[in-house]
Specification:
2 copies of one chain form a homodimer. Chain A is mainly α and 206 residues long. In chain A, 81% of the residues lie in helices and 0% in strands. Chain A has helices at residues 2-21, 24-31, 36-42, 45-63, 65-72, 79-98, 103-114, 118-142, 148-167, 169-176, 183-202. Chain B binds a DNA duplex (18 and 18 nucleotides) through α3.
Amino acid sequence: MLQTRLIDIAIDQFGRLGFDGTSTRDIARASGTAMSSITYHFGGKEGLYLACADHIAQGIRERHATSIDLMLDAGTLDRPTAVQRCLAIVDSFAQIMLHSGSERWARFIVREQQAPTEAFERLYQGVMKDMIEGFCALLAVVKPELPPLELRALAMLIFGQTLVLRAARASVCKALGTPELGDTEAQLLRNRIRENSLAILNGGIE
Amino acid sequence: MLQTRLIDIAIDQFGRLGFDGTSTRDIARASGTAMSSITYHFGGKEGLYLACADHIAQGIRERHATSIDLMLDAGTLDRPTAVQRCLAIVDSFAQIMLHSGSERWARFIVREQQAPTEAFERLYQGVMKDMIEGFCALLAVVKPELPPLELRALAMLIFGQTLVLRAARASVCKALGTPELGDTEAQLLRNRIRENSLAILNGGIE
DNA sequence: GTCTATACTACGATAGAC
DNA sequence: GTCTATCGTAGTATAGAC
């Protein structure tokens, strides 16, 4: 489908070069079509950009439906189960950040975070909001003593451990002395994230 | 000084709009000079871009000389002292990420991480390398049982907690329900980072 | 050293053929 | 629905005046 092909290539280009750095001519050429197709299907460059954001949000939501399910019945869980679910979700995030398939749309999202536009709003409302709130519901079971705002902060900081694998990938590779993160490094990082998260979740409980 | 003014404004523009999205005309106009000054002083747009990277690396190095000092004699420390220094350094990073003055060059760096160019090499060699290795030396005292590669991974993951405050600032603000991170939110996040880091550093030790 | 003027290229949007 | 052709704008680089 032409629209999908245009969006896929556009996500890659926008993520790599930014909105201004990306040329609709290049996107059209790489899609094997004429530039005016973009005008026809999306109304212009900006319409295509927003369509990319919607496509990413929908893609994440579909691919991680199982993680979302793990958060729904948080209120009914006991603490050890909630801890295990938290660890599973964090590991799922880590895998997303490590997987090379996430590279294209991760670049798009990170770029939006630096200078949010309407596209960020769509990404947040489309998928991030539910994920953050669901994770906080689990954390509330694990750390019932924390007020809601602290739980939100904690959720984002734990998430930061996985985000660094994408947002500072170049530094992580340099630090580990590897040109890219292969299976060995991925396993090592996931294990360490798990141990760190466990320590954080059990911290203050003796 | 004209060169400095050009670089300051260029860092802001490059960080905000990316290399392609930034126009040398705009930079020159905002600096109150002619566009050809950029060609004269930096050889062109790319030369200016690399000069920005060097300027950022030097700036960070100067401003955080005290943090760097805290890492130098790691080998001679006992464990509790090393833990305290780690916490101090992480808090220092957190303050950098929280401080609005870091916004301009943080955007530049995060952008480079997504699609590294020659500028990233200069940033890494100029300042990141020493910081990461120094922090790892402290971690080696805290967790002598971990092999070097694990220490590197641990360092980057701990750093991720502070990075998220910049790289995903838009999401953090949304999650905390605030338009920007003020003093209240900053204090809350720093405290939580400290507690998380303490739990990680003491994890596995009973 | 800093400016103006200009050459050249590439951009996004759009009109109109098919 | 998809193409080609074209318009107006904006980009970098460069030559040359001062």
